[in-house]
Amino acid sequence: MPAPRGGRIEVIGEPGEPRERFREILTPEALEFLIALDTAFAARWAGLLAARRERHLLLASGAASLDFLPETAAIRADASWRVAGAAPGLVDRRVEITGPTERTMTVNALNSGAQVWLADFEDATAPTWFNVIAGQLNLLDALEDRLDFTTPAGRRYRVGPDPATIVVRPRGWHLSEHHLLIDGRPMSASLVDFGLYFFHCARRQLDRGSGPYFYLPKLEGHREARLWNDVFVLAQQRLGLPRGTIRATVLIETIPAAFEMEEILYELREHCAGLNAGRWDYVFSIIKALGARGEAFVLPDRAQVTMTVPFMRAYTGLLVRTCHRRGAHAIGGMAAFIPSRDPEVNARALDQVRQDMRREADDGFDGSSVAHPGLVAVCDAAFDARLGAAPHQLDRPLEEHPEISVMREVGSQPVCAISETLLGAGT
């Protein structure tokens, strides 16, 4: 693979089919775009990761604690600012489906009946080089109407007339891509996934009436959100797109980010559409951040850590109120159940999913997420019952949201009555 003019980039490892099509993604122009992103942001990325590691060590040792940041109190107290909000294709998000960018799964997700497809390069995709580049090809083919194919078994796949809006989730800041080296060092996997999709598909998405939309995973604070915003600004500038074209939804799935929700929205406000309650990773983040402290932060069996325990109610209640206060969508946590062939198992699980979705709708969420097309109708029905013909609950007054017993108001900022409840001791 030749390096783009003036760049020192090495592309290594192109195994598997369709190897001959990898060049459609790894063009000299696309690689130049990646070099520009790396040149501008690699040092800041490395610095933020170093700050993460230091913070984790301090939290684990008890030398630091988690709380709302005093230095950003003015942002939280300022009631005047709002995020950019919904863009075409993101106004109604009552059902989102998450899945990998594998070819048949791409078709199934687009045809699932969900309003949004979270095209996932992160948790749902093993980050082999083949999967990374083949996934980019599948997204490009979807936008070029080239996903019409028949498998060797004779099953035909093609995208229907009303596909879901594509929202791409790149890998998190903590990951590197060792198949793309610049000056001998790996690139940020986040910048690789974002950059390749944005370069090839941003204009195509706009031509189809939507836009380049992204889910941002594993953020641990507002400085990491600021980095993403600066990436967006530069990317739009280089491709000649208006500033503010991009929309991003941030997964709040780490305990540090739970204390910086408003600041994260503020940093991304010109590009932000909402927050998502990434509940499974949130529980893991609590264990990772605080588990070394001993019995004070021991959680019960994971089956007992449901969304109704106090610290999870505090987290989701704060997320909904923060989003709606700033004009952002609040998207509920993913229902990860995969339908079973056992009717009894299926019935019990679907009833739990149904109750979960109803609770989220009643709590003020504007939509929720599922992992399988078989759950789309369940989620849709739960939110239809609450929303009716309305596309979301952004107009619902904050005082009408259900009372969360562990939350209280301090000034204009809803916070946890005792920090230990938000951190997990409330179970």
Overall CATH architecture = Alpha-Beta Barrel
In spatial order, strands of the major sheet run 6-3-2-13-12-11-10-9
How many separate structural domains?
1
Classified in CATH, the superfamily is Malate synthase, domain 3
The CATH topology corresponds to TIM Barrel
Parts with pLDDT < 50 across at least 5 consecutive residues: 1-6, 403-427
- Please write the string of helix (H) and strand (E) elements: EHHHEHEHEEEEEHEHEHHEHHEHEHEEH
Overall helicity: 40-55%
Number of strands: 15
- Structural class comes to alpha/beta
CATH class: Alpha Beta
Roughly what is the average pLDDT, rounded to an integer? 89
Task: Describe the fold and architecture.
With 427 residues, the chain is an alpha/beta fold. It has one domain (9-350, 394-423): TIM Barrel, CATH 3.20.20. 42% of the residues lie in helices and 16% in strands. Strands 6-3-2-13-12-11-10-9 form an eight-stranded parallel β-sheet. The protein has a three-stranded antiparallel β-sheet with strand order 1-7-8. It has a two-stranded antiparallel sheet with strand order 4-5. Strand 7 (176-182) and strand 8 (185-188) form a beta hairpin. Helix 2 (28-61) crosses helix 6 (189-207). The protein is globular and about 55 Å long. The termini are far apart. Mean pLDDT is 89; it is low at 1-6 and 403-427.
